[in-house]
């Protein structure tokens, strides 16, 4: 009885301690949010002769994203910068007499070339107003420099580094590892160029994949180097010579000599330069772009609420059947129908940045947009493509009335595949586990523990073929082409935006700003504003509700944060649809 009483009291004490610690963590979290919200909502004043400061650092995302509180608490969160905030601030500052110029501070932002292109376009429009843009960096990454090249003057630290190296895309191949582990990748696919399966089948790149990568990398690089050359008044051929010269090893005098920069300055000297441009004796009056855009009422993506309403629906990440991350069909389909039933919406633009995913989910999203067109025949439906809108990303886009892509966008990849791992070698040869099955019929779905039979292989190939034919048919109908015309540019091949335009896969080269302006012209709207979908949760109490399960896990397991990324990867593989409409991961650098 005595032992039981001690045990009982110990359990109660443990519960109360856990609850107490939970409340401490909860109130700490609320304090962090309140402090953050307080600083965000603090009064911001734009003084006369101010300089708009745009810091290119962290990860650039297409739109504002909610804060993950658990990652903030564990210091795992990477700073996210909304592209819309940067672009909005630049366009608003263009006509603001209080803003004298823009100071671009480059800190190595993680951003795609299409995102960089959007910033370049906005800065170019800003300069047309007669105002100046100055850029500075201790070290320039290639993408940062691509943006900075549009500035009136480019400065670098006297012992800084500037990297121009051309473009490359690296692929890792896992065949050797899988053989060591005793895992066989059983692949069924359609498309000679559908290279997403190659890392699991081959030890190196196929000729077809190398051909397509050389083509789109060459086309994109030609565009980027020509832009840099034009901006800096350098011959395009000279940019190629520079890119072959290991520029990151050069001294700063080299950058000055070859016209890549206009001056060598330490950071405090840049303050003096900017102060003189604004007529200040000491430091210039800076205003950060995120503070500035919070004051704006009518930037490019107008928030005034006056005039016609254009809905901008963001679709970013992997396409999945359900879930809370990526482009979830179970979440985005109801969102599309909600927009269709909203009588205040005058047009819809889908902003896509995705390499695809589930073929089933892609079809559901495509069909929802078809319903939008039927329910709203007088409302235009456009697509604006970001860094990538390929495979499933193209599937959900192909039915639009008009498709916009940046010259550096990767798109196309019209193909289907499925991967079914065979773990029998691992189980039998490595672990000594044999598996045998007794069944009444032969028409079962392949399992992971045994290799596919000839009948299963034939059935799965037929399944994939049907998916490919449906994909091609959707593209043909949406692009007003024959099936034969689409198949000629399909086969899973990835195209850059410029080449996709030539093949009729997109209608116009330009960014989200162009799509919005063209839609406003089509609906005859002189006054218009945009509303972004889906709504981003930014209220602290909504965040607290959403983090409840994570909070409980964190209290019971302090290593939860360390395991989160691995858990997400496992869940992504576990929940992956059997039929994939996905391009291979391509990181251009």
Q: Which consecutive residue ranges, at least 5 long each, have pLDDT under 50?
A: 1-6, 15-21, 25-30, 32-41, 297-301, 548-563
Percent of residues in helices: 40-55%
Which geometry do the CA atoms define?
A: globular
DSSP strand tally = 22
Helix-strand category: alpha/beta
- Average pLDDT number: 84
Rg over CA atoms: 27 Å
Strand content is: 15-25%
Q: Give the helix tally.
A: 23
Largest sheet: 8 strands, mixed
- The rounded distance between the terminal residues' Cα atoms is 69 Å
Describe it:
This protein is α/β, with parallel strands linked by helices. Helix content is 46%, strand content 20%. It contains 23 helices and 22 strands. Strands 10, 13, 15, 16, 17, 19, 20 and 21 form an eight-stranded mixed β-sheet that branches. Helix 1 (2-40) packs across helix 22 (548-556), helix 3 packs parallel to helix 4 (113-127) and helix 3 (83-94) packs across helix 12. The radius of gyration is 27 Å and the shape is globular. The relative contact order is 0.14.
Would you spell out the secondary-structure blueprint of this structure?
Layout: H1 2-40, E1 50-56, E2 59-61, H2 69-73, E3 80-82, H3 83-94, E4 99-106, H4 113-127, E5 132-140, H5 142-148, E6 153-162, H6 175-181, E7 184-190, H7 198-201, H8 207-232, H9 236-243, H10 252-257, E8 263-264, H11 267-277, E9 286-288, H12 289-295, E10 308-316, E11 319-320, E12 327-328, H13 329-341, E13 345-354, E14 356-358, H14 359-375, E15 381-390, H15 392-395, E16 402-405, E17 410-412, E18 416-422, H16 424-430, H17 454-479, H18 483-488, E19 494-496, H19 497-502, E20 508-509, H20 512-522, E21 528-533, H21 540-546, H22 548-556, H23 560-574, E22 580-582
Parallel strand pairs: 1-4, 1-9, 2-3, 4-5, 5-6, 6-8, 10-13, 10-21, 11-12, 13-15, 15-16, 15-17, 16-20
Antiparallel strand pairs: 7-18, 14-22, 17-19
Helix pairs in contact: 1-22, 3-4, 3-12, 4-5, 8-9, 13-14
